[in-house]
Amino acid sequence: MKKFLLLLFLLPMFVFAQEELGARFAYTHTNKSHNFVFGGISYSTKAYYGGGTLYAGTHFGTENSKLKVIPEIGAEMYFIIGGAGISLNTQSIQPRLGFSLFNLIQTHIGYSIPFSRNSNFRGFTFTAAFNLYKYR
Question: What is the mean pLDDT of the chain?
């Protein structure tokens, strides 16, 4: 039964192999009351009943009137509308759960586990992401 559920969860990644490359924009609010905008690139399967996204980009924000630039990579997998993902940036690792609307609009709630004490990403984190693809 465990293998069946795992196959059911992973199947959309392989069955729907039509991929899209596009831009990714996001807004992130962290538990430390830091707000960041994100710009990057995403590689995603077309979402039918599920799909996945790999992305890379950079967070931009301010701290003490100075620009903070934080690079990040991540992966997400969705089945119907719910899903899970993980991201890694230079300050923390963040497992998360969220919702997706056809891999175009996504919202996530996660918990950032910082690598250092002065990390901007710490505790609970909310992200709203927008993936822009050129559909044919």
Answer: 83
